[in-house]
Design brief:
Blueprint: E1 3-11, H1 15-22, H2 28-31, E2 35-44, E3 47-54, E4 64-72, E5 77-82, E6 88-101, E7 104-115, H3 123-148, E8 167-172, H4 174-177, E9 183-189, E10 194-199, E11 204-211, E12 214-218, E13 221-225, E14 229-233, E15 239-243, E16 249-256, E17 267-268, H5 276-279, H6 316-319, H7 324-327
Antiparallel strand pairs: 1-7, 2-3, 3-4, 4-5, 5-6, 6-7, 8-9, 9-16, 10-15, 10-17, 11-14, 11-16, 12-13, 12-15
C-alpha cells in the first residue's frame, strides 16, 4: 500500500508573507520545533537540496537526512522528495497555498510514501504518526507566522536601497511583516542629496519629515517641508525629494494600497544616482521601459527570506524540469511533521 496524508490549516496572514516565511529554509529551525539545524547543499533557480538535522531523541540520537525541494510561487505549489530515503521506499511531499482573503491563507501538506519491509514502522503506522505530528507542527507554524506580523523592525534589520538616491529602507512590507494594504519605511538624505523623480500608478504616498528640511517637486512644482510636517502625494503625481537644509534629513513614507503586481507599483521618470542605467546614458520614462521594478519606494520590498521561491521562476521549473517528473512519479507530494523511530530515523522530511 501507499501511505497518503492530507492536512491543511488556515493562517491569518497574506499569501506572500506565508509563502516567504514557510519557504525560508535557513530559518526553518525557528519555525518548526523538530529541527535543530539545516544545511543548504545546493541551490538553483526555484530549487534547493538541503540536509535537515533533528533535535536529539531520548537516546541522544540526532537523525539527519537530505531532501530536494522545487517551488513555483506563481502556481503556489512546492514539491519535495527525500533523497536519502532511510526506512522509506520513497517519500514525496507537496505543499499548496490558497489565498482565502487579503489576510488569510490556507496551507496544505499532502504526503505520499511507502515504508521498506524492514522499517521499524509499517506504512499504516507511519501514516498515523505523520497525521499526528503534522497537526502539531501546522499549529505551531500558524502561531509563529501570525505572531511575526506584529514585529518591531529596526533600521539595520533591512538592507538599504541607494539606486534612486539617499539611504532608503523599506521597514514594514508584505514579505517581512505581512502587510496587506501597503508598506512603509524611511529615507536618510545628506545635504543636497535627493531621491529621483518617480510616481505610483496604484498607490497614494504619505510623507512625514522627522528631521531636517526638504523640497518635494510635485509634477515639477516645488513644495517645501520642515521637521514634523506631513504631505499627501496622490496617485500618478510625479515627485522628487531634495534635502535643502544644512543637516541630514530623515523622511518617513507610507504607500498604499499595494499595486496588483510588484513591478507595476513604481514608475521611474528619471535615472537615480545609483541606477546602472544612468551610467549607460539610459533615461527611463519613455514607454514601457519607464516602468521598472522598484527596490525603494516601490516594489518589491526587501525579503526576509533569502532562499525562497523566485517570482521569476517559470511553472516548468516545477512540472517540466529535466527528469523531475520521473522523480515525482508517485502521487502528489506533501509535508508532515518529523518522526523518529529506530536506526536511520523514520523521520519525515519537508
Amino acid at each position: 500500500m501507499i501511505g497518503h496524508t492530507d492536512n491543511s490549516i488556515d493562517i491569518d496572514a497574506p499569501f506572500t508573507y506565508v509563502w516567504e516565511r514557510t519557504n525560508d529554509l535557513p530559518h526553518w529551525p525557528e519555525l518548526f520545533s523538530e529541527y535543530a539545524s539545516i544545511e543548504i547543499l545546493e541551490e538553483g533557480t526555484g530549487s534547493a537540496t538541503f540536509r535537515l538535522t533533528m533535535h536529539p531523541d531520548e537516546q541522544g540520537r540526532a537523525w539527519s537526512w537530505v531532501s530536494e525541494r522545487h517551488w513555483d510561487k506563481a502556481a503556489r505549489v512546492v514539491r519535495a522528495r527525500r533523497v536519502e530515503t532511510g526506512p522509506f521506499e520513497f517519500m514525496n511531499i507537496t505543499w499548496t497555498y490558497e489565498e482565502l482573503g487579503p489576510d488569510s491563507t490556507r496551507m496544505r501538506w499532502v504526503q505520499d510514501f511507502r515504508m521498506r519491509p524492514d522499517a521499524p514502522l509499517d506504512t499504516a503506522a507511519m501514516t498515523d504518526r505523520i497525521n499526528h505530528n503534522t497537526a502539531i507542527q501546522m499549529q505551531l507554524v500558524k502561531e509563529r507566522v501570525e505572531q511575526g506580523r506584529c514585529r518591531v523592525v529596526g533600521w539595520d534589520d533591512v538592507p538599504p536601497s541607494t539606486r534612486r538616491g539617499g539611504d532608503l529602507r523599506t521597514l514594514l512590507a508584505p514579505s517581512n511583516a505581512g502587510t496587506s494594504a501597503g508598506f512603509c519605511g524611511a529615507v536618510r538624505l545628506a545635504p543636497g542629496e535627493g531621491v529621483s523623480e518617480h510616481y505610483h500608478p496604484y498607490s497614494e504616498e504619505y510623507l512625514f519629515v522627522a528631521s531636517g528640511e526638504i523640497r518635494v517637486d510635485l509634477n515639477g512644482k516645488p513644495v517645501r517641508m520642515g521637521a514634523e510636517q506631513a504631505l499627501h502625494i496622490p496617485r500618478n503625481v510625479r515627485h522628487r525629494l531634495t534635502n535643502t537644509g544644512d543637516a541630514q534629513a530623515l523622511v518617513v513614507f507610507q504607500i498604499g494600497p499595494l499595486a496588483p503586481e510588484p513591478r507595476l507599483g513604481h514608475v521611474d521618470t528619471e535615472s537615480g544616482p545609483g541606477d546602472p542605467a544612468a551610467a549607460a546614458g539610459v533615461v527611463p520614462g519613455g514607454g514601457p521601459a519607464g516602468t521598472a521594478p522598484s527596490d525603494g519606494f516601490g516594489f518589491p520590498p526587501p525579503s526576509s527570506a533569502p532562499r525562497t521561491a523566485s517570482d521569476a521562476a517559470p511553472a516548468s521549473a516545477v512540472t517540466d524540469g529535466p527528469g523531475l517528473q520521473a522523480r515525482f512519479a508517485v502521487p502528489a507530494v506533501p509535508l508532515p511533521a518529523s518522526i523518529t523511530t529506530g536506526p536511520g530515523g523514520p523521520a519525515v522530511i519537508r
